[in-house]
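A note from the maintainers: we've had questions about how concatenated examples are separated. There is no special marker in the raw files; a new sequence line simply starts the next protein. For clarity in this README we add a label.
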Amino acid sequence: GVHLAIAQIHEHQLHWAPAIEEYKAELAMDPENAMALAHLGHACTQARDPDRAIQALDKLLASNPSDGQAYIDLGKAWTLKGDDPKAIAAYEQALRYDPGEVDVHYRLFQLYRKVGDSARAQTHLAAFKEGEAKQKQAFRESMAGLEGEDKKGTN
């Protein structure tokens, strides 16, 4: 709807408060709008309102339990609230649905280290480093491909 479109414009400009108001207006018209719930959860997390984020994300995940990004935002919200076990559970769930999320490994490294689980912390640090190296290599290959195309175009 129109409120969703306006909210996304605010969100892209990092204007969280007006984005949140527009997402809420969209949800008032369509309470089950998964996209509005996902974006509301994300915007509330960014605005450091973890309670509202958790409420929106829990509702979203009740009907869309395989939304990996929602679990990432849920992990961030629980981290903001200082609930490390729930943050860890949310991030672990995110990796079940999207194992390629390299940053989640780093967040889990930090949390496991904080709670004193050095073995799991090291496992996630290694996964983060490996994933980051793969991303850098893919970027280099992509750039090399573009440079090759540029050279072909100038001949």
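[label: protein 2]
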Amino acid sequence: RLSRRAAWVDIAIINHISLYTDMSGRVLVVEDSAFQRAWIRDRLEPTFDVVAEAGDGAEAVAAYREADPDAVTMDFALPVRDGPEATAAIKAHDPDAVVVFCTCVTQQAQLKRAIRAGADDYVRKPLVDETLVDTVESAISEATETPPGAESAN
């Protein structure tokens, strides 16, 4: 028979395991504002495993290579390398990388630049919890779907 303390430890371990196995993916958060980065992380963590954070574009590329996340949330205006430059470098390293821009940029030319760099989707700031989570979840899901007929190609 287990002691009451051992039973609580077992429950805590089970809860901890299910917390991490129910995650929808591993995410790298890229944002130069520490406040915004923390806000994004806090909104994503109930659903995703935030595996790394970066405060500029160069850090983002290095963090991507080290953490190998399922998705990246990317700010547009970043020091050192801006979001589109960092995205292009990440996509050059991993063409299947999933990048979702979180930006207040509204000019079409800037959004097109992010898309040309490889952005999979974007969310406009100010961010809304559900929109952010849903967009990242959808981008990961779309990236991992097998196109119709692809499994019969071999």
